[in-house]
Amino acid sequence: MKIVLLLTLVAVLCYGSLPKCAENDKQRKDLSNHIKSVRCKGPKESFVQLKVPDGFDYVKPNVVKIPQCTGLFCSEYPMKCLPTNSRTKTQKVEAFKRGADHLAICTSVEVEEHLKCACDCKNTTCKQNEKFNNEICACECDPEYKRQCQERIAAGHRVQWSKSSCACLCSHPY
C-alpha cells in the first residue's frame, strides 16, 4: 500500500511534466500508466462494510461487493473522486445479538451504489460562523464575522479574532 501511495504522490507531483520526473521512456510509460490506474473514473466493484441495525451486535454477511467511486487521483487538489449519481440498494442480512439467547433475525440494510463518479468537492454543512469554500473543498470562517470583529478592535473594544472558533472573543489581560 505504501508503494502505491508513493507512486501516486510522484504521479501527482509530475502530472503534466512527465519528462522532468522520468529518466527514460520506460519510466515515463510506467508513470503514465500509474496515473491512469489511479485516476477518478467510473465506479468499480468494491467491498463495502454493511451497517449493523440498532440493537444488534453484528450481521452476516458483513460486507457486500458493490460499485463505488475509488479513484485516488484528481488533477486538481483538493478535489476527491466522489459519486455524482447513486442509488440505495437493499441487502438482506442475518442480524445477531450476543447474549444468553444469541438472537438472530433475517432483516435488510441499505447500502449506497455509485452509478457515476467525478472529481468534486464534498460540500459539507458548515458551522454557524463558517462558509464552504469550493477552492479548498472545506469550511472556513465567514469573512463577514472577521470584518465585524476587526471593526470592534479598531473601535477600542478588548476583543480578538479566534480563527479556531470563527468568533470575536473577549481579551483578558494576564
From TrEMBL:
Keywords: Signal. Residues 1-16 form the signal peptide. InterPro entries: Cystine-knot_cytokine, PDGF/VEGF_dom. GO terms for cellular component: membrane. One of its GO terms (molecular function) is growth factor activity. Gene3D superfamilies: Cystine-knot cytokines. It comes from the Eukaryota. Transmembrane segments: none annotated. Residues 56-124 form the Platelet-derived growth factor (PDGF) family profile domain. This is Platelet-derived growth factor (PDGF) family profile domain-containing protein.
